[in-house]
Amino acid sequence: SALVIAAVFDRDVNCRRAASAAFQENVGRQGTFPHGIDILTAADYFAVGNRVNCYLTISVYIAGFSEYTQPMIDHLVNMKINHWDSVIRELSTKALHNITPQAPEYMANVVLPRLLPLSVGSDLHTRHGAILACAEITHALCKLAQDNNRSVTYYFSEKSLEGLKQIHQELCSRQLYRGLGGELMRPAVCTLIEKLSLSKMPFRGDPIISGWQWLINDSLRHLTLVSSAARQHIKESAVSALAALCNEFYINERGEADPALQDELVTQYVSELQNTEEMIRCGFSRALGALPRFLLKGRLQQVLEGLKKVTVISPEDVSFAEARRDALIAIAKVCQTVGVKGDGSQQEFVCRGNVDQIYATLLCGVTDYTTDSRGDVGGWVREAAMTSLMEVTLLLVQSEAELISASVCKQIMCWLAQQSAEKIDKFRAHAGSVFLTLLHFDHPPVPHIPHREELERIFPRWEKETLNWNAASEAFPRITQLLGLPAYQYHVLLGLSVSVGGLTETTLRYSAQSLFDHMKKIQSDPGALGRFCETLLKVFEDNLRNDRVSVPLLTMLDQMLANGCFDMFTEQENHPFPVKLFTLCKEEIKRSKDIRKLRSSIGVFCGLIQFQGDMREKVFFQLFLLLCHPFPIIRKTTASQVYEMLLTYSDVVDAAIVEQAMAILSDTNWEAELPVVRERRNCLCDLMKVPRPQLVAK
């Protein structure tokens, strides 16, 4: 059995494989190992390569042979639940849960009494492993008893039941929930609470319930004091424990909650949503999302309003992206818990009275582009909002689809299309997946999806699972086809602007190529090109001085002008598109000190020179202003790009002065002192008959 135990339970993959090989050799040569061939088939060299598979699957199969059952259990209890690696401890306790049905009497009469003292012992690792082992074994024993139509306490002595209740009290009295040890103890005891609740232990009305509730609440408040690595684990354990505890111990025979307890719990949790600590908001948001239906009944509006407030960005909590994410996740969970009833009460169901408000909150989350030192933290919020929109929409579709209005459905699909065209692979992939899920859902279909037939042609049903949204080369050729659908044009163009004008080379290359391919298709259609240009100007106007969009948008416009995307308009005198674009560019860079923005605008101004009419003098004037910009790099870039512009569009200047103008541009040191540069710039103005820019007195 030692070789079998090493092959299945050793931490190191090489040792497991060596033990498996040695076991195979002995079986082959001696044939004296019980069930050798059967075990070898399950635990061969390749099978033992996966540690989780070893602990949770192979071990259960081998423990089915009576010769190995007890030695394997003893090894886990003596050597593994106190292991230094927490992953091994947790896997060991799950293995004990899975093996329990093979030896329930041994687990109940020998193992559990041995573990209970260890669960309140002095060694941290042993204590942690023993508590988790008690939780898992207890749950397995109760489940086995119920499956055999016996009382849940069939396998437990009074002493064992009392020992399980004492664990929390003992840890509490010795203050073992504090400090670094608390980071291990809190999730372990919350797991114990969850498993004892799921086991339907006869503790209803026992004072231990209020002790457990205190620990759950305290763990949620404690999230700010623990390391970021432990935070998620504690939060998830506490929320799972809360759901199980409420479902088992807070519901009466009529399926209702005690009104006083419900009032205290819900009011307390909602009030914590406005805590000044972000992690406390996170914890209690998720806790509200985990509450069972009988606790939300009559309190739905209070809960939804509380969660909605968490999702609103205000100056003092702009960086609380994780709280906003968790609140949006909780809103969807609450909706799924209470269910849908169109003409029902706002306090009990998702209904006509609150569905628009729920959607408004979730749609607001898709617009969160907050950034801080961690990067695009708003991405977490957008991702949660997209998932929640999908969950709520599918819930409504399967219950009362008429509650989904055409305008809401259009907003959802348009925002998802925009996210599917953006630059961060992870969020683009998530948005694309949600978009296709809603498009192809047919139990029954989601109503009011704009341009459904065209979308199903662009995204065939059979490609739903195979289309790789993470790959820019696959995603952008598809999503740019939505530019031809009026309902989606604005949002897809908004998303594309950020990608085409972005900094990531592969995203930039494929998004730009897909955009130019679309532009080629509409070159011969003045109506389509006109509509596209109107949408483009609207995107620019709506995002003026919003640097997240406007800076890459300028870069994209520069590329589009250089690629001849608007050639149809260049021969028309004073066409409104270049005039409006020039005005917007001027407004965008007014008083700007952003070098990237200024450099992108120079390219746009140079591209605008190709249009006929009064524009040219204005464009030259603007470029000559930039030749005397306070930043030397901007002066130098402007001179270089104007030089290239004169080479490219030689007909925009009188042939007699082109060479002289280009000589001034190339021979001047534009990084010299401003008075010197200004003199050279004025020579250029006089030569090209453009008014000299005048210094304005401050």
UniProtKB/TrEMBL annotation:
**Record protein name field:** Tubulin-specific chaperone D
Gene3D superfamilies (alphabetical): Leucine-rich Repeat Variant
For this UniProt record, give its keywords in alphabetical order, as a comma-separated list.
Chaperone
Residues annotated as domain Tubulin-folding cofactor D C-terminal: 410-597
Entry-linked InterPro entries = ARM-like, ARM-type_fold, ARM_TBCD_2nd, TBCD, TBCD_C
Q: GO CC terms for this protein?
A: lateral plasma membrane
Any Pfam family matching the protein: TFCD_C
Q: Which residues form the Tubulin-folding cofactor D ARM repeats domain?
A: 2-37
Protein family per UniProt: Belongs to the TBCD family.
From the UniProt record, give one GO term of the biological process aspect.
Answer: microtubule cytoskeleton organization
State a single Gene Ontology molecular function: beta-tubulin binding
